[in-house]
Automatic annotation (TrEMBL):
Source organism (scientific name): Martelella endophytica
Domain HTH crp-type stretches: 155-223
Domain of life of the organism encoding this protein: Bacteria
GO molecular function, one term: DNA binding
Keyword DNA-binding set for record: yes
Protein name: Crp/Fnr family transcriptional regulator
Amino acid sequence: MNRTLLLNERKKTLFVETRLTSSMDMATMNRLMECATFANCYPRDVVFRQGDPATHFYSVLSGYVRLYRQNSEGREADIRVCGPGESFADDLVFGGDTYEYHAQAADKAMLARYDLSKVRHVANSDGGLLARAIAGSLSGQLQETMDCIANDRLNTAVQRVALYLLEQCEGQESSGSFRLAFQKSLLAGKLGLAPEALSRAFATLKELGVQVHGRIIEIEDMDALRRL
């Protein structure tokens, strides 16, 4: 991770727009900002490793961060891909001394980095305002995790990919296109698929008018995907 960055108006705006801070009153937000520093990451930079002593939690201001676990044999399992506005490791505010997974920049990213000891001190001395805001953010993450598990259980690989494509083209009617924010290998992990399963799903969707050109995805018939 690159050197600590100075706070400017752009970073302050991105900070205010994160899910964690969006529901806070200004006083609580300012107290949290006093616990934060800002840093740039380059692709594949390690934010922290599984088992490291936990010293900070993070919000993504721009870019993407991959969260994953690794077993003793080196096999990796993706847990989550955090994008702009999302936080990770914030559960550690309420307890825990080590990180339970690896965090790695998926591309160039800017992070807000919160000192856990300072945040815990504020959370214990402000009448519960900060703790409630963090708990609300964690509640949203739990709901997203439950939705993800249900999606994995209820939908085939092709349906999972189709749903993701439709979500990215929200607001576009009969046809649409967008640019993947990260590599397809990371998308596979996000959807709980092996890379070869993702490739097979795209091959099937090609018959329904989905064209893949590098990171550019073009969808000729949105209704065909909705019918899956």
